[in-house]
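Crash report, auto-generated. Payload:
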Amino acid sequence: MARALINAPAKAPRGAVIEIKTLVSHVMETGFRYTQTGELVPRDIVTGFTATYNGEEVFRARLHPAISANPYLTFHTVATESGTIELTWTGDNGFAATERIRITVE
Amino acid sequence: MTADSERDSRATRRDVLKIAGALALGGGAAPAVVAPARATPAEMQAAVASIVGEARVNDGRVKLDIPPLVENGNTVPCTVTVESPMTAADHVKAIHVFTEKNPQPYVISVVLGPRAGRASVSTRIRLRDSQTVLAVAEMSDGTFWSGRAGVIVTVSACLEDVL
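Recovered output after restart:
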């Protein structure tokens, strides 16, 4: 399981736009680099990121090799109701990581 | 030393310079052969066309926030903000980021909706060379808007070998 860091408010007033910062540990090997013996290092990147708010998709991203190692992503969403925000990363070689955060809307 | 031999040595020196010149030219061309294919401005245009199709890409409404001078091309902070009320009737549907001199023109594509509240996305990208980065936003009314930023990179990404 990959290590992920998430920074999001635990509480928010109803209707507020909240910022969610995410970072997942991953090498993001581009597939354009060579070893010293001249062999191409195969691509190994995170290709997709999805955020769902109580099951409804609110943000999705498709990543390419030009994203730095340990992909960092910040996005916004409207705090509509209390519940769970689920963040999912998928990638090459069957990479998958999921994190859930609870949010209380007042 | 006789006059003749001096002329000979001069000729030799001239030859040496010619060879050096040829080597310099060859040396300049060689990396282009060895280096992997990189996206050109034309390739970036093709990548943009593959997303927007026949639609016209207008300038404006998109702000691409990248430091103008970066030391390390491996992690360049990059924020794209689009002016939009983000309502159900008028919102940003997608944001795409492209580069012109990376091995591939694509960087990131994000899908948003009215639930996002604010059309602003931050990430960290790799830049192989000093170049222009382009962000294109697709609106819910079908129009496309773009913003660009020039970046000078002192240490490029993708240069180091894997040990």
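Post-recovery validation: The longest helix of chain B spans residues 3-34.
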